């Protein structure tokens, strides 16, 4: 990936698939006339329906959804995860066994599976599944039977043989959301967290920490602007195909998400090379296999990013580890390496269910706390998988200039005008706080990503949160 007259690249060119995931897309607004502003339960469920509709519209209906107990849903307010209809992910080394299983079950299916894409991270193949004669779900029922046959149990910690191709998204599908709020007009013209002074002496270009922000792309007008001078063209950039295009008269949902995340990192770790990747451009979402394909290309580069910040994820079928990310971790030994670290948002549905990729042991999973050190009411939590918390409530950073019309209750229809900054909440933004802290520590101590993370973790404040009945660890500024 190149940028004329700019900093040296950090990532390889992305898969051509990303070229298909371009905005704009249209959002059909539901009728919210019957939703009472004083009815939080109904508002939360309607918000879930609205956000689900954003994704459904973006994917033009070519998408499937599952709810509680991994069953089909009648109401989008009950969705746990989206998945790719008619397709499954299978471990490459078990492919022949899987194909033999289908041949032995020929009477149960209308045809045989078809391999449709090149391997993902060398260890994973994408299969188009035949339809089932029993009218069961082509993906969920078939994946269940495959894993049962090959001996995968809920207690087994190894990756499953087969899995749905989940949708990874910047917004969760239960009340709470990531972002937890729609962007708001800030009360201050200053960023939060505050902009830190440039290091003295400034590091040489070759010595700068390399960060990849895998998100919605970069709104280029924020770079070197008076509203966000911390986003400097020498350090924050994107390939032309990763630029985010915004209609100032009608800013689309999730616009500026990647720009905001990059701004948080830049404020905490100036003189850091931040490349923003436009992976989540279709309704703020992308298939799991496709985002992992892009990460595979990035990690395979000799000049690979040292820190990868991901403010997106998904719940999964059976709460099992997301198979694409699991295979990526195997290929690159992410649990063992010191030279690369993934930092990921824990998600925002106020749940202790694992959210992937944050829940992998090799990732630094970040939940959100409020300035009073309490876990934010939207944040996912869980002592068994959320490693650390940082403030994710009411951060202020770069946002497109223009008019945004709220589409979620209770503010649906409210018009907000932005002039380069926004206030936003969610674990989407607590994750880059940690990324910025680690990048700053790497620069100051001239140490590896893993060692820098351990140094940041050592600064954590220990608190007990009575609401979730857990002890938590908090890093970074709070007020």
UniProtKB/TrEMBL annotation:
It holds the Pfam family Peptidase_S8. The keyword Transmembrane helix does not apply. Residues 180-204 are annotated as: Disordered. The keyword Ligase does not apply. GO terms for biological process: proteolysis. GO terms for molecular function: serine-type endopeptidase activity. The lineage of its organism: Bacteria, Bacillati, Actinomycetota, Actinomycetes, Propionibacteriales. Residues 191-202 have a biased composition (Pro residues). It comes from Nocardioides kongjuensis. Keywords: Hydrolase, Protease, Serine protease. Gene3D superfamilies: Peptidase S8/S53 domain (3.40.50.200). Residues 207-457 form the Peptidase S8/S53 domain. Belongs to the peptidase S8 family. This is Peptidase S8/S53 domain-containing protein. SUPFAM superfamilies: Subtilisin-like. The active site is at 215 (charge relay system), 257 (charge relay system), 428 (charge relay system).
């Amino acid at each position: 990936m190149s940028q004329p007259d700019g900093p040296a690249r950090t990532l390889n060119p992305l898969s051509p698939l990303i070229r298909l995931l371009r905005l704009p897309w249209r959002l059909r607004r539901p009728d919210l006339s019957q939703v009472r502003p004083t009815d939080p339960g109904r508002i939360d469920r309607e918000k879930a329906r609205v956000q689900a509709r954003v994704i459904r519209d973006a994917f033009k209906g070519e998408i499937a959804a599952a709810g509680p107990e991994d069953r089909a849903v009648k109401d989008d307010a009950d969705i746990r995860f989206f998945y790719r209809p008619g397709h499954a992910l299978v471990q490459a080394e078990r492919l022949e066994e899987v194909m033999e299983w289908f041949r032995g079950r020929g009477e149960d299916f209308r045809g045989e599976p078809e391999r449709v894409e090149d391997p993902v991270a060398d260890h994973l193949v994408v299969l188009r599944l035949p339809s089932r004669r029993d009218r069961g779900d082509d993906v969920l029922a078939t994946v269940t039977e495959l894993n049962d046959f090959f001996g995968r149990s809920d207690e087994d910690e190894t990756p499953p043989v087969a899995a749905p191709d989940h949708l990874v998204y910047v917004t969760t599908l239960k009340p709470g959301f990531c972002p937890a709020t729609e962007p708001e007009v800030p009360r201050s013209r200053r960023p939060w967290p505050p902009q830190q002074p440039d290091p003295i002496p400034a590091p040489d270009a070759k010595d700068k920490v390399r960060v990849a922000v895998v998100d919605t792309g970069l709104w280029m007008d924020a770079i070197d602007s008076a509203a966000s001078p911390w986003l400097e063209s020498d350090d924050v950039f994107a390939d032309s195909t990763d630029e985010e295009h915004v209609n100032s008269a009608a800013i689309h949902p999730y616009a500026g998400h990647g720009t905001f995340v990059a701004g948080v990192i830049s404020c905490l770790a100036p003189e850091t090379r931040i490349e923003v990747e436009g992976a989540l451009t279709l309704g703020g979402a992308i298939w799991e296999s496709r985002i992992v394909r892009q990460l595979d290309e990035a990690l395979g580069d000799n000049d690979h990013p040292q820190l990868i910040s991901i403010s997106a994820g998904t719940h999964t079928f059976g709460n099992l580890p997301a198979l694409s990310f699991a295979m990526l971790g195997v290929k690159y030994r992410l649990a063992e390496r010191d030279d690369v670290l993934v930092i990921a948002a824990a998600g925002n549905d106020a749940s202790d269910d694992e959210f992937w990729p944050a829940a992998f042991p090799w990732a630094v999973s970040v939940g959100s706390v409020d300035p009073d050190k309490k876990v934010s009411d939207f944040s996912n939590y869980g002592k068994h998988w959320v490693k650390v918390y940082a403030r994710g409530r009411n951060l202020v950073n770069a946002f497109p200039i223009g008019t945004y019309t709220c589409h979620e209750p209770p503010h649906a229809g409210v018009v907000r005008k932005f002039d380069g900054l926004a206030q936003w909440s969610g674990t989407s933004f607590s994750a880059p706080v940690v990324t910025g802290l680690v990048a700053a520590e790497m620069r100051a101590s001239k140490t590896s990503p893993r060692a820098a993370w351990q140094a940041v973790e050592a600064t954590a404040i220990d608190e007990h949160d009575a609401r979730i009945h857990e002890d938590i660890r908090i890093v970074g500024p709070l007020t």
